[in-house]
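Dear colleague,

Following up on Tuesday's group meeting, I ran the structure prediction for the two-component complex that the binding team flagged. I've pasted the input sequences exactly as they went in, so you can double-check that nothing got truncated or mislabelled along the way. The structure tokens for the whole assembly follow below. Feel free to forward this to whoever is handling the docking comparison.

Inputs:
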Amino acid sequence: DAEITQSPRHKITETGRQVTLACHQTWNHNNMFWYRQDLGHGLRLIHYSYGVQDTNKGEVSDGYSVSRSNTEDLPLTLESAASSQTSVYFCASSKGAIHRNTEAFFGQGTRLTVV
Amino acid sequence: AQKVTQAQTEISVVEKEDVTLDCVYETRDTTYYLFWYKQPPSGELVFLIRRNSFDEQNEISGRYSWNFQKSTSSFNFTITASQVVDSAVYFCALSARRGSTLGRLYFGRGTQLTVWP
């Protein structure tokens, strides 16, 4: 079955280190998104992509970067991890074209702790 | 600009009670999509429903029902005869059409529903 997977599921890192969270989907979806979830804030968009070589900033993009070199993957990089980036990160994907059953599919989440 | 408001931060009910989760949205787009997601204690996001802006029919799926009213910009979610397994955080989300594609989702802050036995 097609799916969207995130790795790792849990990570602890030190302040100042570079960290990359992986997101891989097998639906061949054009659209991919990264959100972070924090108590009291719901899910906030970090970066998103509507296709290969396309990347866009969301409302909380500072300190994060993404690249889209193929359809299946959208890795999220924390350039220099900060304690404020301790959060649960969700990757999502959706089809490029709207149809009756269009929805966004979410990965299982990555819990990142910066110490 | 798009915005979703879930005014209820936490709701507690006793099993078998009916409960309604409110969702109010703001958008200037004429074509948009509304979603509800469930996040159980295990943490994953489970898709429940999508509704298009041009389809105001209410929907019922088992114990779940959704009331979409464009006049009040609301998309409320009712669970009938709640069960302990319904305990979760519920998110309402909005997406506008971006050309021929589905744009990013804007989420509300979520409502924590606790159903007591």
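Chain A touches chain B through 29 residues (CB under 8 Å).

Cheers,
M.
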